[in-house]
Amino acid sequence: MIIVMKRGADDAQIGTVTKAIEDAGLKVHLSKGETQTVIGAVGNEAAVRSIPFEAMNGVETVTPIQKPYQLAGKELHPEPSVFDLAPGIPIGGKHIVTMSGPCSVEPGGIMMEVAKALKQCGVQVLRGGAFKPRTSPYDFQGMGEDGLKLMAEARDETGLALVTEVMDPRDVELVCRYVDIMQIGARNMQNFTLLKEVGLADKPVLLKRGLSSTYKEWFMAAEYVMSQGNRRVMLCERGIRSYDQTTRNLFDAVAVSVAKDQTHLPVVVDPSHAGGARKWVEPISKAAVAIGCDGLIIESHPEPAKALSDGAQTIALDQVPGLLKILRPIAEAVGRTI
Amino acid sequence: MIIVMKRGADDAQIGTVTKAIEDAGLKVHLSKGETQTVIGAVGNEAAVRSIPFEAMNGVETVTPIQKPYQLAGKELHPEPSVFDLAPGIPIGGKHIVTMSGPCSVEPGGIMMEVAKALKQCGVQVLRGGAFKPRTSPYDFQGMGEDGLKLMAEARDETGLALVTEVMDPRDVELVCRYVDIMQIGARNMQNFTLLKEVGLADKPVLLKRGLSSTYKEWFMAAEYVMSQGNRRVMLCERGIRSYDQTTRNLFDAVAVSVAKDQTHLPVVVDPSHAGGARKWVEPISKAAVAIGCDGLIIESHPEPAKALSDGAQTIALDQVPGLLKILRPIAEAVGRTI
Amino acid sequence: MIIVMKRGADDAQIGTVTKAIEDAGLKVHLSKGETQTVIGAVGNEAAVRSIPFEAMNGVETVTPIQKPYQLAGKELHPEPSVFDLAPGIPIGGKHIVTMSGPCSVEPGGIMMEVAKALKQCGVQVLRGGAFKPRTSPYDFQGMGEDGLKLMAEARDETGLALVTEVMDPRDVELVCRYVDIMQIGARNMQNFTLLKEVGLADKPVLLKRGLSSTYKEWFMAAEYVMSQGNRRVMLCERGIRSYDQTTRNLFDAVAVSVAKDQTHLPVVVDPSHAGGARKWVEPISKAAVAIGCDGLIIESHPEPAKALSDGAQTIALDQVPGLLKILRPIAEAVGRTI
Amino acid sequence: MIIVMKRGADDAQIGTVTKAIEDAGLKVHLSKGETQTVIGAVGNEAAVRSIPFEAMNGVETVTPIQKPYQLAGKELHPEPSVFDLAPGIPIGGKHIVTMSGPCSVEPGGIMMEVAKALKQCGVQVLRGGAFKPRTSPYDFQGMGEDGLKLMAEARDETGLALVTEVMDPRDVELVCRYVDIMQIGARNMQNFTLLKEVGLADKPVLLKRGLSSTYKEWFMAAEYVMSQGNRRVMLCERGIRSYDQTTRNLFDAVAVSVAKDQTHLPVVVDPSHAGGARKWVEPISKAAVAIGCDGLIIESHPEPAKALSDGAQTIALDQVPGLLKILRPIAEAVGRTI
Questions:
Q1: Of A7, B7, C239, C320, which is the most buried if we count CB atoms within 10 A?
Q2: pLDDT band at residue D120, thresholds of 50, 70 and 90?
Q3: Dihedral pair phi/psi, residue A194, rounded to 5°
Q4: DSSP state, residue D228
Q5: Do A307 and B188 touch (CB under 8 A)?
Q6: What region, left, alpha or beta, does residue C157 occupy, with left being phi > 0 and alpha being psi -120 to 50 degrees?
Q7: Lowest mean pLDDT among A287-301, A308-322, C46-60
Q8: The pTM is what?
């Protein structure tokens, strides 16, 4: 950690800072410049991270050097993680996992129809929302446990793994009873109560990036889950907020590269939410595969215009095989399969 | 609602849209332009809001006209709301309510010391965090119920009202047993599970704006709470994310004006989080009072450099009277007291 | 154009709006809703675009329907443009054009060395800055005409085309005497004086997107150039400003797709500025090729650590062949060559 | 300057960095931590600022300590600057200068009418655009020199000082012949050619902040002007780009405080562009005065709905006295006059 003192900071102020560092068991390196003093705290930064140096008199800036996400980070785990989403469905390796299905689980036979069609074209995971985080309290809030049951039936029939969002810490157990993968939505990325709860469960977690979260916040959210014991976390880039509303969100392609540079976790891309309209799903998927994602999660529905939510960004079920056909040569071009 | 069709949209596509509008009980106004057709849906927009027009073939853009926040909005409630935070402490009227105290509740006699000092200079509400949403799982997570007890003792002694953050829907009942006002933190602004839970409780809610939430999302979060029955919601501007990290967040002064233009709810400003450093607390507070806030929530501590969290943005307890002295003439200049 | 009136707007206010529309030669379609009146202006929107409807009493919102960029847009020119950057170097077709070279032109034989090496590995355009837009007035400002001469010598020897930035409208003639393509930098994207001047010249223009310009502003900047007569404009995505400074800018991959959806102009990607560090050049280039760019402009230098500017984001000259080798199969996978 | 080396950086890499520092005449302070080495460059940072340390092998991050804006900064000029905009019109002192007038200069007697009315209510500077930076090439581009003449006549009659935007470096001399203050628009904040040109002129400069420029970029733009000799620069906050388009831009109130914390230059606020609609002019002006601005520049027009540009954000001329009346007690509350 590097602490830069203000011009004119006096010896007493410098002493307060250095004492705090030494009390925490780190060594102090002092550089007195012509105009300003710079203090280095050498050793394990975790021991000084919570000291409020910025609040001490005479301190101008405080710059951490070490990464605070020890479990998610690559320093102690340099190789990329590969783990199973369900038996026979590893993520993080050569094969790019595809996940698809409707935004909301719907009554009737739709989940089964979707699952069968997706299975046929090589999709490995069925998505569907039983608990829906809707911007308006008056919108459809999801089918709840009845929806989970419909998903489980579709799995039993097709062998697809299941992913669904969990919003309430009280639902974690219930959700784990039915599905294979728990999704944390973008709006809950810093719902620390929920992160801790899924960290105690024994199912992989798909952690969506917050609407405008920094990379560090995203990786720290993964750290929250992992610190409770659950190490099977996937990061999911789904677009961030920006100033141009031509697309619903701004797809941050380089987030995949940054996540792979700084963590060992698999990275999934969600082109449906990133673009917010059907026509952007294909181009975003192409860029995602080329830049190195480990998975894609794509909203699909037999009739998007009748979907209970997110219809505009949902592709038709019969478009899925064509999309995968377009993506395959790109995957091969970067040494992967899909 | 205005639906603009793409160039070349055919009659069948236009018909699908108009049928959906009419089926929902609204009237259709059709404008066939030289190049594009524009369809107006006339009537109560709530009935068509969840129809996925964007997913229909031939549709280019969909623009809502009516505000979706009926309970928070001014259309049905044009006068500003005034309600009691605790007996004798109304918010939304002429007097600007001040709330202050440390970021985290701390053990020992500090809460009592703070409460007595704040009471003396006219502060009306004591803040303190018993459950802390920390970016790192390794940081201090708050004292929990023990902290709430320390706060309650301070209230019993001084008569200050109490505000504290609630993060877990399972804690709402507990928190309500001890404090007067529940705070929803910025990271939980779209934690809909939590919003619904506090909406069922009988205590006022201080709803912080999300890190980069739009005005509409903020007002819809208030609507979530209100739709459950709890109408005592305060909006709290606490700075949004921006590209310059000189300040921790970007204080959006005009958010106060927009909130007052579009809702009837009282608006509180949090200069501590908005600026993220002690030196910005005074200027932000001055702007907030001048632009019309109904309350200020300011972090203070006897010794900020020893605070358990947020020390850098916390002012010293003995700076509070001076700050209020500076703010009083500004409040008077805009017809208020503080 | 759709004009939504406020609740309670009276007939006189509505009349003022409709009269202005009719006076401009357009037809009025009026929808009186239960609470609000909506006015459609049907016809050629160009005639009403500069009328300040928002300033009229009773007006709530004004929404244009037609695109204001007639020359850049696809409505009148649905096919993608293909044009020559120099004889035998078309852009916009099947082949993706690569442009490379140092940020700043440097004295000595470096430009010649770079040009020869780039020529060998298939690069078609040599880049180099003779006039440098530096954030600090104390930084190296470029070699000026002497730099242009060094570039011209390198072209004469190798046959590469030349691209360089022009910053001053008074330099346009000079720059055109030496190089093949004029670059407008991101900071000058809305320097309308300069845009008009390059619009009068007879060389292609590489128009970089502004630091946080909207798509519409970008396309309108192209329109400025084109409105003066010069139709050979390339759009260049080079990253936009965002809140996470891990990368210098935020690469907006989808900007390529949006530009191709709404204009007929070729789109170039600049991975060097988008990422701001050498290690992001490869992943951004991969995503750019996969998503459909027509060109790449990449900073390279024999010894980046000795470059006069932008060393951190410059790749070593001997890395260029390896990068192109990685990109070729991706280009093929999307039906292109590079 | 602090240079943090990557984990595993070897002695040769460290040596390259330290040699470069020493060659530039600064001293090296080396801290070898457990995992990473930190190198401090002690002395006048200006000498190392252009060395591309980031491009050297083994370097992770480079953090400057000293401010690069020596002329604009407070380090060498701790007292706030006060200077005359025209004889008898100082800015930067106790009195807050008001500037007003239409967005565009218009033909006929309007400038004279506006000037007389503004003079009467205490406004000191007349604004008007003769050269207009319009997003569309098809919009009204300004009256040019004829407009300047109309402004000059209004000054001769009323004694108001004049401010107008200059967009073209070739127009600086012409503009200086007619007006007292040159305005650099937001879109030209990093038009370095133009900045240098106005830096050579002998009239004060009103430097608007770029659409999304950082504080440092803004202060460096001032440094560009000042480095040419012209020290009379005013900074102007006019709102920045954000993700919520309810207001045209996002008014950054704290920019005033940051500018005063880090520079000695007077700071002006433009509530018209910051809010983009008439109704936000009053609240923004109130916040601006309370937070410490030295001037306000407000668009006004006898009939905003007929203004040639920016009508929606222009207040009616007869609203100006009322606005000033509201602002006066706030100014007094913070020890100023207006």
A1: C239
A2: very high
A3: -70, -40
A4: T
A5: no
A6: alpha
A7: C46-60
A8: 0.95
Chains near B with 3+ CB pairs less than 8 A apart are A, C, D
Closest C-alpha to C245, from A216, D164, A24, A54:
A216
Q: Mutual orientation of helices A215-227 and A192-199 as an angle, nearest 10°?
A: 40
> Can you spell out the DSSP letters for C153-212?
HHHHHH--EEEEE---GGGHHHHHHH-SEEEEPGGGTT-HHHHHHHHTSSS-EEEEPPTT
Sign of CA dihedral B249, B252, B253, B256: negative
User: Taking a C-beta distance cutoff of 8 angstroms, is the pair C297, C99 a contact?
Assistant: yes
Asked whether the beta carbons of A275 and A286 are under 8 A apart, the reply is no
What are the DSSP calls for B22-48, one per residue?
HHTT-EEEEEE-SS-EEEEEES-GGGT
pLDDT in tens, A170-221: 999 999 999 999 999 999 999 999 999 999 999 999 999 999 999 999 999 9
Confidence of residue D29 (pLDDT cuts 50, 70, 90): confident
In the three-class reduction of DSSP (H, G, I as helix; E, B as strand; rest coil), residue C93 is classed as coil
Residue of B13, B70, B190 to mutate, testing the A interface (most A Cβ within 10 Å of its Cβ): B190
**Angle subtended by helix axes D278-291 and D320-333, to nearest 10:** 20
Quick check: C33 pLDDT over 80? Answer: no
Measure the CA–CA gap between D282 and B334, rounded to whole angstroms: 12
CA atoms within 13 A on the CB side of D243: 25
Tokens of B95: 């007097």
Interior CA angle at D244 toward D240 and D246, to 5°? 100
Q: Tell whether D214 is within 8 A of chain A (Cβ).
A: no
Calpha distance A42→D37 (Å, rounded): 9
Task: State the Cα–Cα distance between residues C102 and C130, nearest whole angstrom.
Answer: 11
DSSP string for residues in A40-88: EEES-GGGTTTS-GGGSTTEEEEE--S-S-TTTBSSS--SPP-EEEETT
Report the candidate in D163, D211, D164, D166 with the shortest Cα–Cα distance to residue D190: D211
3-state secondary structure B43-80: CCHHHCCCCCHHHCCCEEEEECCCCCCCCCECCCCCCC
When pLDDT is averaged across residues B277-303 and rounded to a whole number, the result is 97
- Chain B hits for D279, CB-CB cut-off 8 Å, are 261
Predicted complex ipTM? 0.95
Between residues C167 and C76, the one the model is more confident about:
C167
Task: Compute the nearest-CA separation of C238 from chain B (Å).
Answer: 17
User: pLDDT value at position B64?
Assistant: 87
CB-based contacts of B329: which residues, under 8 Å, 6+ apart? D332, D333, D334
H or E segment to which residue B295 belongs = strand B295-301
Task: Pick the more confident residue, A135 or B151.
Answer: B151
Write out the H or E segment, with its range, that includes residue C290.
helix C278-291
For tokens 């410059």, name the residue: C314
Identify all chain A residues contacting B140, using CB atoms and an 8 Å cutoff.
Answer: 50
Residue with more model confidence, B42 or A200: A200
Does pLDDT of B36 surpass 90? no
Classify strands B37-42 and B2-5 as parallel, antiparallel or unpaired. Answer: antiparallel
Contact D265, D223 (CB under 8 A): no
d(C-alpha D100, C-alpha D300), whole Å: 6
Query: Is C34's pLDDT higher than 80?
Result: no
3-class state of residue A319 by DSSP: helix
Residue count of chain A, please give it: 338
Tell me if A65 and D4 make a contact (CB, 8 A cut-off): yes
* Residue A262 neighbours by CB under 8 Å, 6+ apart: A67, A69, A73, A74, A215, A219
